[in-house]
Amino acid sequence: MAAYFLVKGEQTVKGRITINGAKNSAVALLPAALLTEEKVKIDNLPQITDIDKLLDIMRSLGASVSSPGGRCLCIDGANVDRFAPPGPLVNQLRASYYLMGSLLGRFGRVEIPMPGGCDLGPRPIDQHIKGFTAMGASVEVGHGLVKVNTNGLRGAHIYLDVVSVGATINIMLAAVKAEGRTVIENAAREPEIVDVANFLNAMGAQVRGAGTDIIKIQGVKKLYAVEHSVIPDRIEAGTFMIAAAATGGDVVVEGVIPKHLEPVTAKLKEVGADVELGPDFISVKSRNGLTSCDVKTFPYPGFPTDLQPHMMVLLTKAPGISLVTENVFERRFCHIDELRKMGARITLEGRTAIIEGGRSLSSAPLRAMDLRGGAAFIIAGLMAGGDTIVGNIKYIDRGYERIEERFQEVGVSVQRFEEGEN
Ligand code: EPZ
């Protein structure tokens, strides 16, 4: 049965919330665990469906996964003996592409269907392939399958034509056990990349420069057991920060790394919210009214594309014209049509959405088309007059852990129903 959220309108997000582990780190750390035959313990994992699916894939390859409790999992990859993850599972999530790097590092070969994921426009993997090829792999792409073979990977100098999180991490995974030195130039600098590099280094890898645009990796023969805790999810934190500013609320997100949220705090200050930073928390308090502003998404440390829909929703309330330019994904705008149903005035010119703000939203039945757009609809529902139904929430569950309960923690009514209930 399809589930949906019922979001009560005209509510104010208020309270404190402790942020979960980062989805986009976790989905790379788990495949990375297969680079060793020894046991790996990863803590602070978010409980989301993308992780469940990834674990199913890893089990199908021979990994055993046990849970000592809480948000911790132990991965034992000793018996992993397959290099061809099953298509139907792989197709369900984008992050399955990290199995390319990790299985290449482990076995020197991999056969994997083209990865799935949210539809944000074209999402090629040419830069991943460019990296593997430079390291001596032969790559065949055809019939929806990527086949990579090598006679042992060799370190290489790789310049990424596009700043890509996925390609940077995948090349890092393939390179840690390659012979010699790999240099990735024009690397992505996201905090999740640093988290993965720290994890690999704790396993015995030699990765230097993660977090800058040049990453140097000296290959090692073997990687060892490790215990690691996932960094906090800056996108989950940003979701609640924006929700507070958009609903005239007041929230403290706790357990965060404030530095990771700099682009978000800067924009929230610009729209007129009071933002205070502590060592591991950020408080966002809405003052009277919001000011329009322009937002341009860019790779880190730019404003994150993963918070673009949420920010667009907020800007529907700010009087005046705001421009939101999406520079990372060509077509990450599926949320606009749904927001129009709520009375938002948004037009799209190329990659820029023009928002005529200062209008109240009214409730409408909405359907999530992707993970972040879906979460942004909950914020829109909280701002709107009347109750909003958000359907197709399987997308939201992929990357937010029980988001309805999280919103309840900050004092608003978002309820999950199965179709036919209520
Ligand atoms: C990661 O996707 C995240 N996913 C995305 O989060 C995030 O939006 C994105 O990085 C940007 O921050 C995961 O970490 C699993 P990219 P990824 O490679 O790796 C182009 C979310 O909602 N490109 O950095 O797929 C690409 O088309 C998700 O949590 C190439 O042209 O993103 C895009 O325009 C959605 N060739 C740009 O680069 C390539 O080989 C950035 O993509 C690779 C990418």
Features:
single chain, 422 residues, alpha+beta, UDP-n-acetylglucosamine1-carboxyvinyl-transferase, Chain, 2 domains, four-stranded mixed beta sheet, 23 strands, globular
Could you please describe the fold and organization of this structure?
The protein is an alpha+beta fold and 422 residues long. It folds into two domains: 3-20 and 232-418, Enolpyruvate transferase domain (UDP-n-acetylglucosamine1-carboxyvinyl-transferase, Chain); 23-229, UDP-n-acetylglucosamine1-carboxyvinyl-transferase, Chain (Alpha-beta prism). The chain contains 14 helices and 23 strands. The chain has helices at residues 23-32, 49-60, 87-90, 98-107, 126-134, 165-175, 191-202, 234-246, 262-270, 308-315, 335-341, 371-383, 394-399, 403-409, and strands at 3-7, 14-18, 39-43, 64-69, 72-76, 109-113, 138-142, 145-149, 157-159, 181-185, 206-208, 214-218, 226-229, 250-254, 273-277, 281-286, 295-296, 320-325, 345-349, 352-357, 365-367, 388-391, 414-418. The strands form six sheets. It has a four-stranded mixed beta sheet with strand order 21-22-1-23, covered by helices on one side. A hairpin with a 3-residue loop joins β15 (273-277) and β16 (281-286). α5 packs parallel to α6, α6 (165-175) packs parallel to α7 and α8 (234-246) runs parallel beside α12. The longest helix has 13 residues, at 234-246. It binds ligand EPZ. Residues 23-24, 27, 94-95, 118, 122-128, 162, 164-167, 188, 305-306, 328-329, 371-372, 399 line the site of ligand EPZ.
